[in-house]
Design brief:
The protein has one domain. Helix content is 36%, strand content 6%. It has three helices and two strands.
Amino acid sequence: MVDEGSNDATAEIAERNGAIVVQGEVGLGRTTLLTEGLRKAHEFHPSRVITMFTEGRTLAGPILVP
């Protein structure tokens, strides 16, 4: 997960649930933040990567249910 300076507990909750959180600089833009996240993900050799830009408008819960 890439966190662009959110002011809620999103990053902390994600980390507690096993996510790797990359702290992105505020104002870098989506492309740069996406690139940072993909570079970090590449270190773990994932078979899949999910990208989502919510900006606080979408709840991730239903997406993460197995």
